[in-house]
Design goal:
By secondary structure, the protein is an alpha/beta fold. It has 5 domains: about 5-130, no CATH class; about 140-225, no CATH class; about 235-355, Dna Topoisomerase Vi A Subunit, Chain: A, domain 2; about 360-575, Rossmann fold, CATH 3.40.50; about 625-695, Winged helix-like DNA-binding domain superfamily/Winged helix DNA-binding domain (Arc Repressor Mutant, subunit A). The protein has a 9-stranded mixed sheet, sandwiched between helices. About 35% of the residues are buried.
Amino acid sequence: MALSKDDILLVTDGGLDVFKYLFRSNWPGLRKPFLNPFYKDTKPSCFLFQESDSRKVILVDFGNSEFSCDCFGFVGHIFNLRTQGDEFLQILEIIDRELSLNITDNHDRIREIKRQFPEVKTASEIDPLTVSEDREEVSKQLIPPILKDFSQSELNYWGMYGISAEILEKYQVKSIAEFKGIRKTGEEYSIHSRVDEPIYGYLSTRYLKVYRPLSNKRFYYAGDLREGYVFGLNQLPQKGDILFITSGEKDVMSLAARDFNAICFNSETKAIPKKIIRRLHYRFRHIVILYDCDETGQRESKKQVEALKEFEVKSILLPLAGVKKQKDISDFFKMGHSAEELMKLFTDVLDALYQDTMNLLSSFEVHFDHPPLVPDAVVTINDVPVGSAGNLMAITGSEGSGKSNYLGALLAGTMMSEFTETDLLGLEVARNEHQKAVLFYDTEQSEEQLYKNLKQIVRRAKCHTPPSWFRTYGLVGMGRKDRMISILHSMDRFYYAYGGIHMVVIDGIADLIDGVNDEERSVFLIEELFRLAAIYRTCIVCVLHLSPSGYKLRGHLGSEIQRKAAGIISIEKDDDKQNSIVKALKVRDGSPLDIPQVIIGWDDELKYHVVVPDSYRTKAQDRKLSDLSDIARDIFYGVSTVSYTNLVAELKERLGVKDRQAKNYIKTMKENKIIWQLEGDSGHYTYDLQARIDPFM
């Protein structure tokens, strides 16, 4: 009969007999603390538990999870054997032979093994003063505790960590007058709150975790405390920037009191479930391990970062002594450290993480006080994107249409003080009163031209130099792959450096991918920018060319922007080619055709573009008919008829309007003889090419 793991567990009561044999006279019993025999252990943090369903006995080391194991792992530690392959078979043979299980036909005895087994000290042999950690009476039966109001001294205790009564209520933390439980033996026990030994409870409908901070045995458990225990999960926002994973519940609330997002699991030494982190990774930009800074916390923090590296999990080591009362984030705040100091520790992590990127990016920064050397003349295509807070917006147009000047007015608006009066080409730009970062990335203009544009922006804003929070980068000399990474990393860094991002402008978004018709990369790029706009609560302005039709942005990239952007502004040359026409192609609410267009032109005295006097004269109805004619020309290009259903769909996509509005536009086009309904066929429409050209071309 071949040896098997299951057979050995069956005849040894789940491995219990194996542990009893190895411990011999020093058997500690189940659920009793003892010192780990495999390393110099100073506190009894090991326990033997027997699972209620499988009956399997597990050794759990709360001080070092690497030594948590079943009976096979324990024998493996003794003989330096792995629990896999041929070495695992050797472990099975040792157990079979030593305990005379007779599962195999080989009955050779190896009594000398006994001499190799380490001596294990039981809790009775340890100074009781060292048995101060932690744990734990466990009862599957949850008896509702007797609650009471928080006393002033109890509120003072939590207040030392900045935790208010409101925070305690938010996280369902209660003051307990009496807690009753039932041990595994069936023995009833109870504990009562005293002034010198208060009792608090982390309470849910299915479990209770009791916390006694001033007692030797600090934690009791009752009810169904499953592996999925995550304290603070229900209090998290839907989206956020940083999520801290801490050692304990008090740490979670101490961070929450300072407006940080945090959760904790039941133990530092437990593996963090990947399925939970996978969901949280989508919701938060950074997940950071913030464990105790003692030896256990540092070791387990490194293990968790390695185990969760696919989610880019980071860690912070607190600058504390690592001894009791100086090891966790609650102690950090209690000692007088601020939320700003914690953020400094986090940004130090980012500095180390992004060092190569920031060094690379620094070579491409445009410094106002150090003008670049004048290079050979280069033809520059000027595309201008624009957006709103929390969303993507776009500016589009053809080469030479005036996009750079329009973009300059937008950026000048971010620099202006509340007392500055200047022409912003009809734009209203929210004042950057908190001096958040404004980031301007250009992928196509030469360094010389970009510097000239920067000077014009500063002059329009009536400033002497750009503010420190206004950063300009000319990325024309940077590779495509590096451009996107540099933008993402620098956005993240400047977000924390300046307390937020007011606006991001990417002039030449098509240069971040290999081509505008690369569907996969286009989708990824726009979704990533859209996600970052939401997380950072900023406006990301994108620039892309129009297609020849004049109403659709170029390629798959343009299609993605058209779907995701909250607004799109088009700039095109006027008929006399001296001025430019600015009009909306898409707005969040309503129809862009109902918004009057504006005309801008060059002012020789001011040396930048201004609104042409009386340019708002263009009536909304005149613009609507002209633009509907242009759209019809595009829709019917190369086809003789279009169905009503397809016509509605095309108008909805091109203009970003609802179904009802699209149908109203069809009615308007019919009434103004832009399109005609086929006789005898109410479901199809056509129009005459010459009839389109004469009135509107």
